[in-house]
Amino acid sequence: MPAPPRIPSSPGNKKPRLNRDLVLSTALKLVDSIGLDSLSMRRLGQELNCDPMALYRYAANRAELLDGVTELVLNELAIDPDASDWQRQLRATAHDVRQLALRHPNAVPLLVTRPLSTPLGLRPLGMLRPLELIVALLIRAGFAPADALHAYRTYYGFLYGHILNELQELVVNPEEEDPVLRLGLYRLPSKDFPHLRSLAPVLAEYDGAAELDEGLDILLTGLAQKLGGGPGPQLAGPTSR
Amino acid sequence: MPAPPRIPSSPGNKKPRLNRDLVLSTALKLVDSIGLDSLSMRRLGQELNCDPMALYRYAANRAELLDGVTELVLNELAIDPDASDWQRQLRATAHDVRQLALRHPNAVPLLVTRPLSTPLGLRPLGMLRPLELIVALLIRAGFAPADALHAYRTYYGFLYGHILNELQELVVNPEEEDPVLRLGLYRLPSKDFPHLRSLAPVLAEYDGAAELDEGLDILLTGLAQKLGGGPGPQLAGPTSR
DNA sequence: ACCTGAACACCGTTCAAGT
DNA sequence: ACCTGAACACCGTTCAAGT
């Protein structure tokens, strides 16, 4: 049964009709500007000036809305599973994820937290795509499927660990000269925190990109070695199962 | 000026007076049972049967309450900075953190998320204690302070990455036989997710403790090598700065 | 001085009433 | 059939009124 002809959204329409992408990208913009906790259905409705109830056309509830925002953020990643050089691709993706996290720090809790709320298979597809694509990349590079999954986990764990590390040490008063003041370390009783206090200058010099690259060097070397057939210390060989 | 003599909480008191520990541990119990989102000041007040406003004696607001719960969870860790074998201590702590996460999965978002909201120096001391103690351990083991911090970051990143990995793959229907069904993978269009679907049996067999140990083997070997003076591929030597 | 609870300004979501 | 908005059952937190 053919649907009755729909009036296309002609330029003369007063309201640029809502759609999922607009809703989600506006939500992301709000998360970036006012934070996750302040993103409410009502606030979002106000931003899109529409009835808050209208949003429920595009997400069944707030949790699904947040899942949608997570998907939207992850879609900013471009992963080519057919890349000729898999190490180059993984390295580039790692830096992309890092940039993403720095661009959307308020959304990072979504990235690390949303997957904990839903079993793998029930997650929105956009949240699973990076996993599928990287596993595909690794298999194409020669890993046995089970080893590709193993390698993905190592990579993902390292990457998200790094991001948590880096964002944790972000500084609030970048204009302050003294690193102790800049990090608020003066508040720590030096009796209980002698090392932490004296590490202030080192803490203040954190270079996220460099740290990420150092880790990637080790990680990718290790993975390449497994692929080449060099047996790791006590890891199963690359053709397990 | 001596305080007026206080009536000690005699056993005859009808109400076992509130205190911070009771408030926080009850909050943790609630998080474990009903989840983070359902933990409200009012619900907590009801659980302790007291006026919700009374809780504000022990935490300035909900965010501080959550920080307190985070501290409480982290206090379950026993880290001995004077341990004779630093590798053994780090390994044990890693497993302790893993067990902690499995014991309190609903609190894991707090562990990874709370530190992102407050600059290092302004965080509650209980959240910084593991950092201080592990850095102390590493310095005692012979690391230069800056390298100890570096090593801590690697360790912390790996550990939290692993936990996110493992909790992400937790299964909801453990009684289901077929791994595809158990993980809900039937929902994925096999056109877009060929690898993920075929990996179902491998996904279903995730062994967190083993995976953690494999990673620790590599990590600790790498750290020990840096300590011993063997120069890593392109890492700064152990006596940087 | 401390504690209590009413009141305020919000929430997410349901559902009946409109078109 | 779709959209709208009133209403419900909650929130965190302020603050005036009690003791």
UniProtKB/TrEMBL annotation, chains A, B:
PROSITE patterns per the UniProt record, alphabetical: HTH_TETR_2 (PS50977)
A Pfam match: TetR_C_1
Start-end of DNA-binding region: 40-59
Highest rank taxon of the organism: Bacteria
UniProt xrefs under InterPro entries: Homeodomain-like_sf (IPR009057), HTH-type_TetR-like_transc_reg (IPR050109), HTH_TetR (IPR001647), Repressor_TetR_C (IPR004111), Tet_transcr_reg_TetR-rel_C_sf (IPR036271)
Keywords for the protein's UniProt record, in alphabetical order: DNA-binding, Transcription, Transcription regulation
GO molecular function (one): transcription cis-regulatory region binding
Segments forming domain HTH tetR-type: 17-77
Database matches in SUPFAM superfamilies: Homeodomain-like (SSF46689), Tetracyclin repressor-like, C-terminal domain (SSF48498)
GO biological process, one term: negative regulation of DNA-templated transcription
PANTHER family to which the protein is assigned, alphabetical: HTH-TYPE TRANSCRIPTIONAL REGULATOR RUTR, TRANSCRIPTIONAL REGULATORY PROTEIN
The protein's name in its UniProt record: TetR/AcrR family transcriptional regulator C-terminal domain-containing protein
Native species: Arthrobacter caoxuetaonis
